[in-house]
């Protein structure tokens, strides 16, 4: 990821330019829309931009152009892929805004979540009614606005692409990703509640399905494929991008699941053990439940999802899950999936530069601590 | 609207065909997604389809093709406009699903709203956690899914359009409408809360702004313009469509505001006086507040937005608003706006058929009782 930060700057500049145009439209309607504008910028200013990076290097894997950080605006021929990468980030911001309402999360990246920001605005403005209701309602609308914008940004990028077949394929990949991640999120919130009436034998399969649709395809495979299709990838190239992306995406999410239970608050920006309080039924939990004796499993089931868990209960659960060997098994699964991704990469018909960058990205997303 | 019901059938068939394809994708992911599928169909099976009709006759105003109900599937050259009309209905379903969460509405068209349907599913399935939380979370995701689908449906329709300039213009109109209605909805929920700290002099202007963006452009002007651009409208034609659509849209919403306070539950499918309990700050309320003496205005402000209003309080408020002359003033505004729209229509460079149909639609949307 030698060029990672310059590329991130490029995507960021594209997002900022786009937002500036869109928010001037909002302001022409009413100055009262300023919070939609301010909070959009705020939610789009940070993040790791992994999706944008995968999209760019998926493009370069096929286009073989490398990345010249001194070329103005990344070069004219990069406009479509940089816009698509930016669109993925705007879509992701929309998903997070809605996700935080769904999960009732107070924070995002260490700062207040969108509905809490609107809630605060209501409280400090002395408006009538419930601040919490206004916060939630406004954040639903902010997410809707960002969803629409992500789509406009993608279209702006694909418009000047001379290869119309490639533009259509990239758009098809984007809309498939959009539907799949929404379906994956529904399966995720369903699993948190429906596990009580489902058979224990199926729990791992169900957790895997959530990983594949909510995370692996969304965060890695689809961004790579969108980038690749923009460059006019052959079937072999697209297969290689997917063959690399899916196992890497699974490893990425398994690392996320570990961080959700064992992550350092300072680094993740989330309270320690957050996933335990939320009751997320991840692969880690599915594997722990397979390994635990009945008594311990019942205790886990009883405590998991209790928003009031104290620090002592959290660390007890952390130990229980770790002592039964579930953490080691997840680490093995991460290693296996990374190995599978790396093997595909080694044989992939990609540019040299992209192969190196994708290898570095694979390490970054699966060894991270935040 | 001689062809109204056949046209509605055509749009409905397009929606059904599209949903059948999309839900087969959902089922290939997991049978657990069935409720997303079932509730989508349910929310897309009804409604007055005014937006679809305006879109079609906006197209015909320019294309001058009329409507032959016996032509199979409405004819090949109608595929783009019928798809766009269907896309407007799918977008509207998405907006309603989110709107009902925002307004905390239990019903929609006399049946349970989406979040209440998911809430019921949770309760009857014996799943863990809060049914209300699951209902809200799932409905947010259902709305997101429908938003994405509306966009796909529009694209499918515009793809085969030979006039690429027209396709781009239609898409630009659609995305502008999408952002404007979201902004309008935010201004609406803001006004319900922020009126307490704002000057009384501005209340009418603020209510007008909500009407223009949340309703008039969204429900009438934009559908007409989208239809017109698909047919390759000249600037004069597009100006006429807008000049007719905007005042008609204002009249449409003013009628809606009256129905929200005085509508018959049997016909509207909503509890009588629903807007009073919700505390909507409509033009009707703004005008009543201008006309009422201080004591009565204070009483109105106190009761408006109280979800517990009983039937006696509702009918007292209905009388107060009517006795001060606000209802008569709204009726005059409706008549003025309809007259303005009709005058534009009389001079408009449209096909004969479209002129007749648009005139009939103008009557239907401003004289309706549901």
From TrEMBL, chains A, B:
Protein name in the entry: Geranylgeranyl diphosphate synthase type I
MF GO annotations: metal ion binding; prenyltransferase activity
Magnesium as UniProt keyword: yes
Keyword Metal-binding part of the UniProt annotation: yes
Coiled-coil ranges from the UniProt annotation: none
GO biological process terms, semicolon-separated: isoprenoid biosynthetic process
Keywords (A to Z) from UniProt: Magnesium, Metal-binding, Transferase
Cofactor annotation: Mg(2+)
Family indicated by similarity: Belongs to the FPP/GGPP synthase family.
PANTHER family: GERANYLGERANYL PYROPHOSPHATE SYNTHASE, SHORT CHAIN ISOPRENYL DIPHOSPHATE SYNTHASE
